[in-house]
Amino acid sequence: MPNQIAYQCLFLFLISLILTGAAHSADDNLTEAVKQDLRAHNEFAEKNDKDAVKKRLETEGITRFADWKMAAESGIPEGQVLLAICYHYGIIVPKDVEESVKWLRKAVEQDNADAQYRLGACYFDGVGVPEDKSETGKWWRKAAEQGHVAAQRNLGAFYLNGVGVPKNAEEGIKWTRKAVEQGDAIAQNNLGKCYCEGIGVPQDKVEAIKWLRKSAEQGYAPAQRALAHRYYNGTDVPEDKKEAVQWWRKAAEQGNAESQFMLAECYFNGTGVPEDKVEAVKWVRKAAEQGLAEAQYNLGLCYFEGTGVPQAENEAIKWLCKSAGQGHVEAKQRLAEIVDLIRKAAEQGNADVMFLLGCFYAEGVGTSKSDSEAIQWWHRAAEQGNAEAQYNLGIYYFNGTGIGEDVTVAMEWLNNAAKQKHAKAQQALAEMVRQAREAAGQGDAEAQHMLGLFYLDGIGVDEDRAEAIEWFSKAAEQGYDRSRQALHALNPPPRTLEAMLKEMEERRTQIETRATTTTRSPTTRDTRGSALFNGLSSPSMTVPR
Q: Is the pTM of this model over 0.90?
């Protein structure tokens, strides 16, 4: 009997060892899998734009998110970073930058270099945390010291430019070299620039070309573009137009707008390649569609003159307007000469042209100066979604230029432009929110009301009804009538039984009255519209409130 008990104990012990080993093996497999997922994500992100990264993450997340979440909750730092990335982009889970930062901090507590780098990036952009370049420098240094190549490269740039850290060219070169030693193409380009200009190292054109070429050969478009310019102009290398064209083509095929434009110029003039106006227009159009003002101007001229494309005045005006809208002087001058044609195109409903015509009236270019005319044309362009017109209207309403001052309407237009990633509108809203928050914190009722509106409509901040009500309440407590009205609209008082009975009685009386005054044959078909739709008219575009 004792032997039997001993055998049973030994058997149970062996089973427990097997189960423990299996559990450890499963944990190890999960850890290794999420590590591979994060490595693959980082490699893809280095070579592709944000939209491509999000699309890949959405596809991967369908099958892998459960493992990432399990790994994160089990304390595996790579899983925590992947979960943070999902929250950052709003992939699988709702977008929540604060939650993203929370998971990054958990990984940072385990000294994970990738989390340190990403947390530094959050402080750089002010995403989920207040913008703080010194905090960025701190976290990038921690990651760089662990060999994180992007952190080394960026820390080097910080020291070279004195951003977030004291300017120190030697320290900048040190960290740039560390990234170069890992074969980083961007760092190689940066080192080439430093040798070219003698920043932190003795000026050495041969070394500059050497590192630019290494970067370009790895496919880094800005280095390819820089090398092309040098071959084209014979700067630090023998002049070679064909070699220049080859490097511009490599960069252009990656979507580099400046290289696309220069390649177009080469085809247009037959420099380094046979002259080909059609091919020139193809490349200048690619650059123009990316927003390069010089390319837009030249594409407009091609349409005016029928060079490489059929002559088309409306297309010419469209592209000249886009260029002029970015401040291109020659495009403005050319358009000023054809104001009558522009007015005709604007009246046909082209938003870009309407915006430009408004600018002409605002500045008195080719016509008499008139703020009211400018506002009229900007309104029409803004209602079609033109971000520049929306921004200008916002500024005019805010300052009361040519129109009654109305901060609420100004905010609406600026917010519309900001949603289209209009940088100046985003900056203006951020400044308005900052000032309102500062004044509201000091007890200013009007500022408290404005801050409530910001939160209510998600203007410059994330939409938050509870936060809006809190600020409206603070202003209402000080007797601010507009906040009281806002609170009433948000939380209308419940209807009493007496009021509901009175409503029902009035409705019954109306029905009885209608019944006694309306006589129709029961066999006659009712050709009138439903009472629900009586009196409705076609919708019209109106200025947002």
A: no
